[in-house]
Design a protein that fits this description.
Blueprint (H helix, E strand, L loop, with lengths): L1 E5 L19 E5 L9 E10 L2 H7 L17 E7 L11 E4 L2 E2 L13 E2 L11 E5 L3 E3 L6 H5 L2 H14 L7 E4 L5 H12 L3 E6 L2 H9 L4 E4 L5 H9 L2 E6 L6 H7 E9 L12 H6 L3 E4 L5 H14 L5 E6 L3 H10 L5 E5 L4
Parallel strand pairs: 10-11, 10-13, 11-12, 13-14, 14-15, 16-17
Antiparallel strand pairs: 1-2, 3-4, 3-8, 3-17, 4-5, 5-9, 6-7
């Protein structure tokens, strides 16, 4: 089969020097055929979405990178082979893939063997991908291949952060910093569908407007020094903040979280916070909770919730599979709102 193989990582500042840098380290090429393992299914990839994880690996900002690597954690396609006598009914079915591998038996935390599809195992930026049979999920009939491919990593991360770790209840007030990224947009869609009052933060007025079209009540520009005061006047305080930004914004969340409120952290694109006010933390009895990906139980619940609420993933850009270097450049620029999805050019 053919796949996009990453042969080396770019320096973190390399993308600033030339637009075509990804073509130096990524190649669409024939890869060695691997026998299908027992208990696994082979899926012909029809669509695959990008995540920040793919970008971090491509820039060498991820632990344990092995070259050459076939990236891609999100995918939708058709099952073409199954190596288990009692699972042949999957053949020909249209499926979306749970990218969480080897989670383990503890719902609270992933096992030491845990990994994410797409490095070290081969990912979805390929003609075919092999996954454990239990990681197959039927695509709801109302979703296209492209829409289904936009669910897995970001949707799972958002679901666990919002409902499992965040314990969101209908009517609660939620703040989502950094709206625009795949997980943040999924948090917005899930929280709105659950009956929450959702507010967002961004550096872009256009993204705030798009978020409101997706159901957000309102938002603020975080590069405005008065944003905490603005939201305090409009909202009061937030029951839940679901954050993938961190950095200098994080200490400010403590000012606008309600007493007993929860701050769930699923990422840190701006790095560690410069400080945390411990006195405010204990006096307001707030909870700061970490969240990473999700368990098989979480993914099953995510798919059931999406199907029940008829949620359609917000896909901003669809590109052909041949345009992965261009897609990574777009992702690096950070100007997108929602998911970037590659669509197979094969019949």
């Amino acid at each position: 089969m053919y796949a996009w193989q990453l042969h080396a990582s770019l320096a973190p500042d390399a993308q600033q020097k030339a637009e075509n840098m990804w073509e130096k380290v990524l190649r669409w090429e024939k890869v060695e055929d691997i026998p299908l393992r027992e208990g696994y299914a082979r899926v012909r990839v029809r669509a695959a979405a990008l995540n920040r994880r793919d970008l971090w690996i491509g820039l060498g900002l991820y632990p344990g990178i092995r070259y050459p690597a076939v990236l891609g954690s999100d995918g939708c396609g058709e099952v073409v082979e199954v190596n288990h006598p009692e699972a042949q009914s999957w053949l020909g079915r249209r499926v979306v893939l749970n990218p969480s591998l080897n989670w383990g038996s503890d719902e609270r935390v992933q096992s030491e063997r845990y990994e994410i599809l797409g490095m070290p195992s081969r990912g979805t930026f390929a003609e075919y991908v092999d996954v454990p049979i239990e990681n197959l999920h039927l695509v709801p009939d109302y979703l296209s291949d492209v829409e289904a491919a936009a669910i897995p990593l970001a949707g799972l991360t958002a679901y666990r952060a919002t409902f499992v770790q965040g314990r969101l209840q209908p009517g609660e007030k939620v703040l989502i910093p950094g709206i625009g990224g795949g997980v943040a947009v999924w948090v917005l869609q899930l929280a709105v569908a659950a009956g929450a009052e959702v507010w967002v933060l961004s550096s872009s007025e256009a993204k705030l407007q798009t978020a409101q079209r997706l159901g957000a009540t309102g938002g603020a520009l975080y590069n405005d020094p008065s944003w905490t005061r603005t939201l305090a006047q409009k909202v009061g305080a937030f029951d839940l903040i679901v954050d993938g930004v961190g950095g200098e914004l994080f200490p400010l969340y403590q000012q606008i979280i309600a007493p007993g409120g929860r701050i769930v952290v699923y990422g840190a694109t701006r790095g560690n916070p410069p400080t945390i006010d411990l006195r405010r933390l204990f006096w307001k009895q707030m909870h700061i909770i970490g969240s990473t990906m999700g368990s098989p139980t979480n993914f099953t619940a995510l798919m059931a919730f999406i199907t029940e609420k008829k949620i359609k993933p917000f896909v901003e850009t669809i590109l052909p599979f041949s345009a992965l270097p261009e897609a990574l450049t777009r992702l690096w620029r950070g100007q997108q709102m929602g998911k970037l999805v590659l669509q197979s050019e094969s019949p």
